[in-house]
Amino acid sequence: DLVRVNMGLLRRLMRGGGLNMEILQLGERTKTEVALCYSPLHAPRRLVDQVRRRLQNARLPVLFDSSYLTPYLQKRRWSLFQGVGYTERPVTACAKLCEGKVVLLVNGSPFALILPYFFAEHFQSLDDYAQKAFFASFLRLLKYGAFFLSILLPGVYVCAAQYAPQILPQALMMKVLGAEQSTPWPLMVEVILVTLMLEIIREAGLRLPKPIGHTVGLFSALLIGDSAVAAGILSTPVLIVTAFTAISMFVLPSLYEQITILRILFLLAGGWFGPVGLSALLMVLILSVCGSGEAEYPFAYPFLPLRRGAVRDGLLRFSWPALNESSYDLKEMEK
Prior knowledge:
- This protein is of the alpha+beta class.
- The chain has helices spanning 2-13, 45-57, 70-73, 90-98, 133-163, 170-181, 187-207, 210-230, 236-249, 256-290, 309-315, 320-323, 330-333, and strands at residues 20-26, 32-38, 85-87, 102-106, 112-115.
- It starts with a helix and ends with a helix.
């Protein structure tokens, strides 16, 4: 039984006890086994009871993958960001258990669900703790920068070119204006076309067999981009901006879906409403992130409410002696 194999992997890493596992059967037709794992020493009883209740209330005809449970575990079903995380690494799952979180294992699925999952955790990885503190901190700052670049850069470029070209350096402004005059599309439409083209090429590369998928994707992007610029259909600055944005997206694969939607929304806001639209949508994004997460825990923790860990192990990653000065789990968070 695969779920028991995964349960055994967790128990091998947590030999000191303090690990409870409950088996539930979900799926009216499949009767799939789901393991509810938590540490009674660190996990709040309220959180465990809430997750158990949501699992028991989930009405699923079939359950073949752990992702089927995500809509039933989330409080804000219509939110762009989800408070449920995924991991394939047993070490990561055990680390989250020691933080007082709940881990769900589904029979037949290699992914473990983590609840609750905070926004800052998308910018962290287990490898950060195996590297030097200064380099891990640099990588985290780089990830935050890549996130904002990937969602804001196309919208800011269109907004600056259409509504405030004076903020660009004169040489750059002349190149942008000259490139746009040689293309038949409005600037916003051009950026949207290139964005959709890159998404189609990416999807085609994923669906093809791996030996040729990456080659076809790279060849298609180079061929179409070079031909479109040579024919005067697309401008070079637009291709550079969208390509740099697409590369920045791959820095945060767990937020790829959210970044894709936000990038298009900021592009439309900047093209239609200018700086006012960008500022308003950015404020909506901040309010969405700062809203309550799962099980009434703030999704923006540890930045909201502000804690010592906001800098020590949130925005940056301090050395192990500094991290060991005070322990962290959800029970400590409720005090």
